[in-house]
Specification:
Blueprint lengths: L2 H4 L7 H26 L7 H19 L2 H25 L4 H24 L13 E2 L9 H6 E2 L1 H19 L1 H11 L1 H6 L4 H28 L10 H11 L4 H20 L8 H21 L9 H18 L7 H5 L1 H13 L19
Antiparallel strand pairs: 1-2
Helix pairs in contact: 2-7, 2-8, 2-10, 2-11, 2-12, 3-4, 3-5, 3-10, 3-11, 4-5, 4-10, 7-8, 7-12, 8-10, 11-12, 11-16, 12-16, 13-14
Length: 369
């Protein structure tokens, strides 16, 4: 019996949980690398291009060799290819990071589309082998939840473990201190005898490697095919996740899972012509938890966020709709846009410079303050 379904929360069952974890993985892989890069002071708007390049080259190598480990490495290499270009432009040539990132996205779309047309344009759709699930002994045998949580490919486990590794590196190692310093006080890092350029190069290459692996996850794990612009904005979602997570590893994990869960939900509700009551209930509960959290963490004397009352009203409205369950015809296109609408809400309400690395997007020249 499906435990989640039996307690009456509609589409939020173990099938949804499994899909949420799978769909979170490529976003989380890209976001972990981007977190390191942004803490070092480099914003990779070209993250979408890194992922797209990783998806194509992993697919190509999987087709040519049949070796999935080599294909995953090729995905990492595809991400690193454009990360090197990003580093040359922004760290060495001091170009504007946002402009360079947009250019990389366009270049990645152009390169992968051209290569795909040249190599596969005259062929029928080729499906390559995909990386299979790896069940964790004992844990994978837990009824209902075992297969949902502990029966996935190795990239899923790597993505979630990388959050713990990122936390440890950032807050418990000398290199982590240097990474955070490069994004906050690069002059202090320079004074300590550590090259700011080297630290920022490390951040950019980390972002490229992880994003390339995230793209490989799409091509050689989830679908076994490649099509033009198949990343479908996931690189931008990873950027949003880093902002939503306030540049902290656990916050980034929560943000990525929220986006992946929203994507899984839209797949479950694609055939629904109205919003189920369970969706309103869960949305109201999440909004209420956020309101309580904001109220309890507010320090005395600090002004209350203007978003809290609005969020409280939203929670109350959702709770009311959960009981009424009005008949609202919802087009398929709206369901498919749920993750991106959530990203827009995040960008509208979560961007504050109080948590942003102070030197993010700003080039550094030795001797500057």
């Amino acid at each position: 019996m499906n435990v989640l379904a039996s307690v009456g929360i509609g589409p939020y069952d173990t099938a949804w949980l499994t899909a949420a974890i799978v769909l979170t993985t490529p976003i989380l892989l890209a976001a972990v690398g981007e977190l390191i890069s942004e803490r070092a002071g480099v914003l990779n708007v070209g993250l979408e291009g890194y992922m797209l390049s990783g998806a194509f080259f992993s697919y190509f190598v999987a087709w040519k060799s049949g070796n999935l480990a080599l294909a995953a490495a090729a995905g990492i290499g595809g991400g690193l290819l454009f990360a090197v270009v990003m580093g040359i432009l922004t760290i060495e040539a001091r170009a504007d990071q946002i402009v360079a990132g947009v250019g990389i996205n366009l270049a990645a779309i152009g390169l992968t589309s051209y290569l795909f047309d040249e190599i596969f344009g005259s062929r029928a759709q080729i499906v390559v082998p995909t990386i299979g699930a790896l069940q964790i002994p004992l844990l994978g045998s837990i009824p209902d939840f075992g297969s949902a949580l502990f029966k996935h490919d190795w990239m899923v486990y790597l993505a979630f473990l990388s959050i713990g590794v990122a936390w440890y590196v950032l807050y418990r190692t000398r290199w982590g201190l240097a990474i955070r310093g490069a994004g906050e006080l690069p002059a202090a890092v320079d004074t300590a005898g550590i090259s700011v350029k080297r630290v920022r190069w490390l951040g950019v290459l980390t972002a490229g490697a992880f994003a390339g692996l995230g793209g490989a996850n799409l091509a050689i794990v989830q679908v076994g095919i490649f099509h033009q612009e198949m990343t479908a904005g996931r690189g931008f979602l990873a950027l949003v996740a880093v902002i939503f997570g306030r540049w902290r590893p656990l916050g980034v994990l929560a943000a990525c899972f929220a986006l992946g869960a929203a994507d899984a939900l839209q797949l479950r509700l694609a055939d629904e012509n109205q919003v189920p009551g369970a969706v309103w209930s869960v949305t109201a509960g999440i909004a209420a938890v956020i309101v309580v959290y904001q109220l309890t963490r507010r320090r005395p004397g600090r002004p209350r966020s203007s978003a809290v009352p609005a969020l409280g009203v939203f929670a109350l409205a959702c709770a009311t709709l959960a009981f009424i369950v009005p008949h609202i015809d919802v087009p398929d296109q709206l369901w498919r846009s749920v993750p991106y609408l959530l990203a827009l809400v995040v960008l509208a309400g979560a961007v504050t410079r109080a948590h942003m690395p102070s030197k993010l997007t700003l080039p550094y020249t030795r001797g500057e303050g």
